[in-house]
Amino acid sequence: MELNDDKESCSVREKKKRLKKVSVDKLSREELEARVLQLEAQNVQLQNILTKKFQEESSVLKEIGKQKKRDKPFDFSKYSKRHVLLKLAYLGWDYQGYAIQDNTSKTIENNLFEALLMTKLIESRETSNYHRCGRTDKGVSAFDQVISITLRSRLNLGDQKNENGDDETLSSANMKKEIDYVDILNKVLPSEIQILAWCPVDEGFSARFDCTKRKYKYFFPKGNYNIELMNKAGQYLKGPHDYRNLCKMDVGNGVVNFKREIKNINITLINLDERDSEENHCIKSPEELELIEKKSSSYSMCVATIEGKAFLWHQVRCIMAILFLVGEGKEDPDIILQLLDVENYPRKPQYALASELPLNLYETSYEDSIEWRWNYRALLYVVTQMQTFWAQHNIKATMVRHILHDLESCLYKLEDGDGEEVCGQSLGLLGEPHSKKGYRQLMTRPKCSDLETRVDHYVKRRRLDPNILDKEKEAACENHKTDSLDPNIPDQDKDKETQYEDINKDSIPS
Amino acid sequence: MELNDDKESCSVREKKKRLKKVSVDKLSREELEARVLQLEAQNVQLQNILTKKFQEESSVLKEIGKQKKRDKPFDFSKYSKRHVLLKLAYLGWDYQGYAIQDNTSKTIENNLFEALLMTKLIESRETSNYHRCGRTDKGVSAFDQVISITLRSRLNLGDQKNENGDDETLSSANMKKEIDYVDILNKVLPSEIQILAWCPVDEGFSARFDCTKRKYKYFFPKGNYNIELMNKAGQYLKGPHDYRNLCKMDVGNGVVNFKREIKNINITLINLDERDSEENHCIKSPEELELIEKKSSSYSMCVATIEGKAFLWHQVRCIMAILFLVGEGKEDPDIILQLLDVENYPRKPQYALASELPLNLYETSYEDSIEWRWNYRALLYVVTQMQTFWAQHNIKATMVRHILHDLESCLYKLEDGDGEEVCGQSLGLLGEPHSKKGYRQLMTRPKCSDLETRVDHYVKRRRLDPNILDKEKEAACENHKTDSLDPNIPDQDKDKETQYEDINKDSIPS
Predict the structure, then answer these.
(1) What are phi and psi of B30, to 5 degrees?
(2) Which letter, b or e, does each residue of B468-481 get, where b requires 16 or more Cβ atoms within 10 Å of its Cβ?
(3) ipTM
(4) A-interface mutation test, from B124, B406, B407, B429, most A Cβ less than 10 A away
(5) Are B493 and A33 in contact (CB < 8 Å)?
(6) Global pTM?
(7) For B379, which of A53, A393, A410 is closest by C-beta distance?
(8) pLDDT class for A486, splitting at 50, 70, 90?
(9) Are strands B193-200 and B259-269 parallel, antiparallel or unpaired?
(10) Which residues from A are below 8 Å from B299, CB to CB?
(11) What's the burial of B502, exposed, middle or buried (CB within 10 Å: 0-12/13-18/19+)?
(12) What is the pLDDT of residues A236-245, one digit of tens each?
């Protein structure tokens, strides 16, 4: 096979290939031997190319393939177990979401369970007493996802209890004897998914129900956004509200209560000075903010931080979409007040979600008695992986930034254009795409169905209790709780139909 | 041969292959014939699988498929042509290199020609009088690649000439009438490959042979590198030298002259202050440099700029590999002097190339009479595309930077480790991976074959003229030129064998 011969067109090469197939009985012995060697070499070459391609597609499957060959049946009954929390971080950009799905193996959970099974830390998913803190969608990342699960233990039950006992020497020794869960799992997990720490918990502890706080971060380029206006609008979101107009209503799965509480929300520029990156995590004075603002450009990065106990499906991305419209000056900050006023505005106007790429489940909290166990060597390994990812993306970003600098200079010099438009315009990629017809005010747009209509739809299909709304109201009165039915959306298994619903329509098919 | 049977381990498959490779001279005539037929069949099977995969990969091909159904045959004879230069930029990270290859459709050139054919700007590649300025490898990007090519024109020959005529009104009108090459191509090209500008040239103009200067940039994180030492070593590279120990010798393709000239080389930190990003392109005083150094961290970005008329295969990546070793303190800057001293060190020590990701063919130059034609609207489109890429990568980098900040704080707090080690260690991902055996000095390592041995190897296989080295010396004396035989490496077609050579060995199989 001729390679790299760019003088030949594809059709000529095809002809050559056909010509080569001379009948074998016409070849001499010598020619036959040479032909065999040549074909074997070509074959190996092609195999190598194909093997490379398959390897690119499968990350953990390789490991499983090797492992299955060596496995004798594993006798779990010989080992004790313990209930633990695992803290994990994952870069979800190239995954189809956190939750296992039928039609793809490229989910966080799938890789996690492959790793747990391969390392014999669990016998099966069904018997592992597994709960997860949050469920992130396709493309979304997390730095503080937590799961509760029962794992194989090297210690007997007595030693497990002694870890927190009075005898410090004994408990320290016991802790070191335990399986190094973090290290073992990280070696078989893909590098985008890493365990950070673990800690022992009581049998009944649930990563899902015992979570006291969830904090999301959303990283975006400043572009032309007015951060001050975005913060003004953001503050209206604080407190207990009905957020049905700022989420995707998951009625099909029994979610009919949209009251949640946003405890904190803040948007800030990220300080450019690397050395002071700790300051990025502190509250800044107005003077400091002004100074940062002056030094910033369209290419500066911002971060929005939103904190609450529990969130609705797509709530953060809906919020960011509206805040971007406010930041662009297309809507007033007061639009938030309208969207939260479900009495007068029970139907959500149609608008697109903000991109999933910048979203990260950044911090989750549990009761104070939870003591995470960190291991230096294991953590160093995670840091190394993350540094590699950072370098790859920052190298690319830096390279592109350079050409943008040159191209933007060209644009300014070209006489027949308005250079001012350029900066930041397409950096608004995170919100709605620009429409040639011009911007349409939110409250003038077609509206999605209201809650009652959606409930009717599912009641008719016998998938919901006809009295669900009344029961919800009763429960709310009795408990004075706002989230008694489903404290941890979007944890519930998604209805297949709603999962593939057209987000932009966000309406019940008629 | 079983394909895609991931239940078999790799070692079992290997054994199967070895069993099959019985020595050909031990086979009977019958067995040989059978073997040829069997291998041919397997070959076809593999080819088909690969072809399917290419079709999945190829973006533009789908369009062509649709297009072909609708097309009436296009009558090129109705149109005049003109010889032009096209300036293009591409992000090569996800491509298999610039040059068209048999085993993949994911090359820059393939996409370029699909676009040129689809838009009927050329009739076929063979008749398009095509030359390219530089040929970049897999993963490498370019912001100033130039090609010369003959395209369909809307103007008659007379109007083409008038564009640069005395009558300004007429020439301006003519220029506007011409096909908007940039716009038309960019709409069908993938967004990572974009035309920036075009300009008319005389029939004989060659993007390859008429290029007067090529400048590469290499973007990398500062990590623990000593930039001052790297620059000291870099300066030794300037001037005319024999760079055989700092490249991949392409002897199989007739490259036996390794004398080139590096006109400029400089490594600098990239200024953190976005507003002053223009300054990144200016020379800085020692005081400015010191100030920048103080504000920098392991996560600051640096750029190496290397300029010459022509470069050898992998020359820049070899240079960066050595400079990284110098920057890490593993080699003295003087190592460069040794590597350039081909009299005393005619054989290259084995070392790995630096990563291809950060490399960019940043600027190419032609004679002054070349006037690039820029179009505001088209350029705005390119800027928009690039801003999207920048945003995607910077969002990811920013997100990862944040978790690194948190994780590194954890590491510092853990008592049983040395937090100081962490910063920058794995940011040296671009050079050699750390070996557990420890670092081995370059000049103590196994060496690759020297030039004469390689020439012998190919002469024996009758692929090179036995007198090639002598002829080279004569030519060099007569012309006083250093690059008379092949001015524009790595443009030449790569030898099949060297393409699949193990880069790390970089030696002729014995």
Answers:
(1) -60, -50
(2) bbeebeeebeeeee
(3) 0.81
(4) B407
(5) no
(6) 0.80
(7) A410
(8) very low
(9) unpaired
(10) 274, 390, 394
(11) exposed
(12) 999 999 999 9
